[in-house]
Design goal:
By secondary structure, the protein is mostly helical. It has one domain (about 5-55). About 45% of the residues lie in helices and about 0% in strands.
């Protein structure tokens, strides 16, 4: 559920999901080469949190 003031944001996200640049792989950018522009640290942190809350 969203509020009327969120409509522009929601529409923007939906438009982005349909763009050619989005590949449907999630919210974290992590490439296999581990380049400096990826977010491996954030992905690792999220995985740690998931393990903590899973237990």
């Amino acid at each position: 559920m969203f509020r009327p003031e969120d409509l522009r944001l929601v529409e923007s996200v939906q438009k982005g999901l349909k763009s050619r640049g989005y590949r449907g792989q999630g919210r974290i950018m992590a490439d296999s080469s581990g380049s400096g522009i990826s977010e491996h640290g954030i992905a690792h942190f999220h995985n740690l949190l998931a393990q903590v809350f899973k237990d």
